[in-house]
Design goal:
The structure is a single chain. By secondary structure, the protein is mostly helical. The chain contains twelve helices and two strands; from the N terminus they run αββααααααααααα. A two-stranded antiparallel ribbon has the order 1-2. The chain binds iron/sulfur cluster. Iron/sulfur cluster (SF4) binds next to loops.
Amino acid sequence: MPRGQVPRQPARTGRQDKVRAAQSASSKKARVERSAGDKDARVGTGAFARPAPTGRQKKGRQKTTPKPASPLSGKVSGKPKAYNPIAPDRVADILQRLDHLYPNVTCALTHSSAWELVVATILSAQSTDVNVNRVTPELFRKYPTVQAFAALTPEQLEPDVRSTGFFRNKSKSVVGAAKKIVADFGGQVPDDMEKLLTLPGVARKTANVVLGSWFGKAEGVVVDTHVHRISRRLELTKQNDPVKIEQDLMKVIPREKWILFSHQIIHHGRKLCIARKPKCAECSLENLCHAGDKTWSTVDMHPDAKV
Ligand code: SF4
């Protein structure tokens, strides 16, 4: 640098002289150039000109080719179609496959009267049917009638039902139900939902078991632990509360199937669709099922499907 010449310093004011003017001049120039480029593009003469659209393309934007839809994305040939897990066709397919898998299933609890079924169902809470069936033959031999149970105190019954778990509560419920049936219903188990629900220890599940399996009355759908789990896996409900699950199932399953459906699902839950590690590779419902905890799958998980 020649002597005597000092390099240009930033302005002390903190503002760069002429910078704004220079910026404005350069942006104006850029606008002019862009405008010229656009014109070039329109007439097809610019350096980066794209071919001018011809025919109908002149009027609108070029259409993009729709991506092919995934079979489970719910989109068919570009038209979005929402996946509906409770679509009548899908539900009918599930019911048909259950009929094929479990054609003649019935209640697995051993019983020979409505009262015995009430007792067995109360004892089956938090226990397995196998466990209950081990206890009840001796229990019903010892106390053959509802009047015999009604004459007991809960403490007297406890040793007989101890192995089914929660035996104190269960003893109280069984003895309480027996006393109520003897006192209010002439020793006969009522075949009416409202009356059954007045018995101690009897909620909708037990009432539905007794009404469906003994009286052949479809007043609701039995929601036990298997029905609860599998209805959610099959997306027939998103609820967690048994009463709400039952309401959902009653809406999507035809009434004439309510009794059989519960038995079928309970069998399915014991055989294949077990709580941990369901045996999906052996399941005939597999390609209809998008359960989040499937152990094997031939279908993509639908984004809406979760358990
Ligand atoms: S595919 Fe698996 S999770 Fe689905 S219903 Fe069958 S066993 Fe259950």
